[in-house]
Amino acid sequence: MRKANISNANDMVNDYINRGRAKEVLHLITQDEAYNGHEIRINNKNYINFGSCSYLGLELDPRLKASAKNYIDRYGVQFSSSRTYLRCTAYQEWEELLQQIFGVPIVTFTSVSLGHHAVIPVVVEPGDAIILDQQVHASVQDAAKKMMINGVHIEPIRHNRLDILEERLRLLYNKFRRIWFMIDGVYSMYGDFAPMHDIITLLDKYQKLYLYADDAHGMSIAGKNGAGVIYDQVKHHRKMVMATSLNKAFAAGGGVFLFADEELCLKVKNCAGAYIFSGGHQVPVIGAGIASAKIHLSDEIVILQESLREKLRYCHQLLEEYHLPVLSNPLAPIFYVGVGLVNTTIQMVSHLHNDGCYVNAGIFPAVPDQSAGVRFTITAHHQKEHIEYLVSRIAHHYPRTFQEMGRSAQDLVRGFGRVKKFKRLIKGIPTNIVKAKNHEIQYESSIRQVPKQLWNELVGRLGANNWDQLLFFEETFSGNEKEEHNWEFHYFLVRNKNGEPVIATFFTEALAKDDMFAPAETSRHLEKMRQQKDDPYFLCSKTLTMGCLLSVGEHIYINKALPDWQTAFVVMLEAVQALREQKNIPVLSLRDFDAADELMKSFLIDLGLKRVNIPDGHLIDHFDWNTKQEFIEQLKGRNGKSTHDRRNYIRKRAFAFEDRFEVRIVKSATPKECAHYRRLYLGVSDRSYEIVGFTLQEKFFENVISHPKWELLELKLKPEFDNRKERRAVGIALSYQTDHLYSFLVTGIDYGYLNEHNVYTQILWQTIRRAKELKLKINLGITASQPKRKFGAKIIKYAIYVQNKDTFKDVFVNLLPQHESGIL
């Protein structure tokens, strides 16, 4: 399989956000001349606003506005100074009030996210470890990840799994000075709570365990003095650092960090970079914050909290009465109605927007690929009739959108089966995909069950994936000792009502490494971890892959001349998903698509897949040369002009060394020779971190040599260049030939001879010469792009589309070093 470059994570997020922008559900801006708390105007249309985090409605409270104006009149708009030198007069009153609310020492920052980056490097020290809840806020993860450079060990655990936390504590306990568990009080997407009582029990049980909590969405809505959801359940523990937001229900701005003792609080003020070097809060923020703090310290906060809770309970009750799949805690102001796929979610959000209800689309990266949903919030500004209207519109559009998009209730099982089991769903959701009736799907578990001529006409002509090649793979990757060497094959053909083939493809079920798309340094580090743990299957998953781990080129036939090809594709994908569920396979991968195909990109993203760019492919599709000189002369530069650099490279590194080698196509080999060929291959695979996979077994090399369509090209040095008693191959190329293509798939090199004799360059040259003899185009595969371009190979940009059942392993891999300076 191929690995993407370091930009892939950003590329995937960019794809999804741009998709939301195109559908006009993201990056919107209001057109309000004034704001009343519950109504906004976007694109010349009025909406009820169900997207605000100002849960108590204090942002419009006259007392906060008057206080902000008062402090502007007294101190101006800002007091521009580092607080290490000098603080505005108003700070003292504000921070004293905040300390009264929480009852512990506090430090304020201009935002919670900035505060995490300032506080974590102070409270977490070298010799400590960090365990992250899988769903802890991205700002916490980002700040924690930067601690790796200080030698801090970091790892995630599955969401709210304290049993796993305790297991990890026992394993890490004697290795680290302190172990920090990092959580949210209220999780910002699903609106569920952290199990605080159980966490405090563990804090008391394990001396080295410390807690770092972010209660941004819990502030004000619960707890004495509005101190938050966490403080509503437990008191501040002596081993806890807590952050919360003053920018949401508190309705002022910035964030506040809470400490068990004054000494640690002062250390943060003295050492936190964002406190020392950044400007303080704007004066009107402090003024509004003072007024809000006074409300929190009065009996009024209890009335405000209870009024909000009544609305939350009412909304949750209505959602359940309609049998909508709500995932949220009944006391959370964040509501999440599960949908499943991105395109269904965006369509539903669009319908709600058309009805004047502004809600959010919960999509990747905030939630897993198949777990998109409608996210909305309830605030004090909403009346019961607003809530009734929203829930009724969700209930109206929910089954209709599933029908409209041709989706089924199975999407909910796939997207949320690990999170929650829904007792009963709203009527009208199809049990099967709606558009399947016009197509017939054929499934086979072996290529033997598919007519050879038909397969080769459809898929076999696209790349090196003809009938004979697949039979070779089936026979080679079965009945082996190790799990990774046993693959199961699945073939799908979709025909329309006229019996015409619309889709044909195959998938391979195999164990693969979860870092196959990660940066090289991440994979290098993971390989070390696997060796240290003596566990070659650490961070590996069963994967259902279009094509297989050795195939190249296009793997799917699509008759795009037929107008219903997208429907046929959905029918095929639904059958694949059903197989995936039956086999409990966590990762789905569709490869290799034209990276420039924007239609396919949009289509597959809507179906809940993430696009991953992979290393370039290389193709030589013309052989209008007969001599080496003619080969040199036909080389072209990137702009179509002849290039001295390429010609010089070929002369000096290929032609000048050609006479040093004996080259042959191996027709038979002894077991000893096969073992040597595999050692050459391991010499390459053990050094490659751009492509990370399990190594091929000796059986593969034995079968290649005996197969009529495979060729093992062997390079030996002539006696005058090899002083060993027994001359052996110093390089090999394993290639597969079809009627139209010669595909270079596997190589092996003796690195003791690599540079002195330019072995790899010679492998490329001799493989190209062999393709010329056979009069076939040659696919030179991926990686090693620079020397392949020197030989005139065209660059082919590929993309694959991936879907994971959850984000846990992604979180784990993303926490690993991505460059050589990273330390875990």
From TrEMBL:
InterPro entries: Acyl_CoA_acyltransferase, Aminotransferase_I/II_large, AON_synthase_class-II, PyrdxlP-dep_Trfase, PyrdxlP-dep_Trfase_major, PyrdxlP-dep_Trfase_small. The keyword Transferase applies. Keywords: Aminotransferase, Transferase. Pfam families: Aminotran_1_2. Residues 46-394 form the Aminotransferase class I/classII large domain. Its cofactor is pyridoxal 5'-phosphate. The keyword Transferase applies. One of its GO terms (molecular function) is transaminase activity. PANTHER family: CLASS II AMINOTRANSFERASE/8-AMINO-7-OXONONANOATE SYNTHASE, LD36009P. This is Aminotransferase class I/II-fold pyridoxal phosphate-dependent enzyme. It comes from Agaribacillus aureus.
